[in-house]
Amino acid sequence: MSLRLHNTLSGQVETFTPIKHGEVTFYSCGPTVYDFAHIGNFRSFLNADVLRRWLESPLCERADGGKGYRVTQVMNITDVGHLVDDAALDSSGEDRMEAARVRLLEDKKSGKLPSEAAAKINPNDPYAIADYYADAFLADSRRLGLRVVEEAAKDPSLMPRPTRSIAEMLEMTLTLIEKGHAYIAADGVAYFDTQSFPDYGRLSGNTLDKIKSGAGGRVSGQTQAVKKHPADFMLWKPDPTHLMRWDPSKVLGRSVPLKEGYPGWHIECSAMARGRLGDVIDFHSGGEDNIFPHHECEIAQSRCATGKPAFARHWLHTRFLQVEGAKMSKSKGNFFTLRDLERKGFSAAAIRLELIKTHYRSNANFTEQGLKDSARMVERWREFVVKGGAAAGTGLSEAGAAACAEFAAAMNDDMNVAGAIGAINTFINRTPNPGPGDAAALELMDGVLGVVALARRDAAATNDAPRSPEDLHIDDLVHRRTEARKTKNWPEADKIRDELVRLNVVVEDTASGPKWSRKAGF
Q: What pLDDT digit, counting tens, does each position of 43-56 carry?
């Protein structure tokens, strides 16, 4: 069965066929590093990672009978040009890095800025702000197992930054002007001429006829007066006062009609995707909030610059994440980063599973109970692998091969991760005494979901780390509980159990001996 995925561009589930035999080019919209990435951001990034892992998996059969694709995935880190109001099509919005500067200055003045950040960030240096939050994003992504981040450690071109790709953006902007698809308005801003591209709106349904007043009336009248159409969007904005600015003539080494300033958000991804992956790519992913205007604008400027009939052949968008049934909001206290959840006692493996287990085209409800359920599921899978004891090169058992076939059918069905998880759990339920071939099958499936590997990594790190006095005390209690149970000293065992409950410790009796963990949230 071939991979079938929903394509936002066509609105239909389509059979995937790559541009180049056995290879896939994949661009994922990454973070804007003006703050820590939250779990809603990571839901989109992780869904892209799962798709990438599935494409690479030996369980993924190609139309030609081969197994798996060679994937080149690129994810940007936006460090300039991203407006606070994502829906703003004009140039009057505030750059997010500038907004971060103001926020950090206020936090530093009021004493709200954490000591670690205060020591590393100069709020008046946008490059220092970007580097600090970019490093944090990379660390969080490694904790959650994003492959593109792991690869970019060896090949930085896989995670480009706009501030390091200004020349490419300028060249694309000038090409669009020369071809009549862009113009320099009276305010000096270079705008894309949406009326020059008949397909504008095909991705989102926001046709030019529907766009009468820019971004819902938020565009200033002064800006509208210089634009040919309310939907025209910024490619380059002159601003000699902006902290992050470039002189186009100096950057390109020749005289050009653009003045000192900075790029628009949309042109960045088009230029960086083209520079690393080519004029036409297989996949482009992002959150559903990227569909309009960002991805719509990317398509327009990319196709007009290259003259190709497509930019990305397949568009994958992840729907929004709610927390405990409500939209994430700092004021509601339900706004979480990975670090927030790890401080509550949840593992990266459990967080990853909780973020990927709901279908990418459905709104997900992220709950503490769901996290606890995911944590138990991850541990159950890890125990299954440990008990089976697969070695390198172990073949699959008959039951394991059947489970892998069910898993593959679910993944090929529009990336039905819930069905894939169901295949794993059914397999485990039917296999109370796993052997090496069973463990090998689960590890092969987990290579796509990527959670057992994280649990194994964290368990190894915990075992290698120095034990705290509290951990040693709990170790001793668990050992004494085990000895009391062996000698049937039930009063002593019950007394120790009550003490462990008081310490918010859960003990699980496994085939390899008792294992303890703290209750999630403690």
A: 999 999 999 999 99
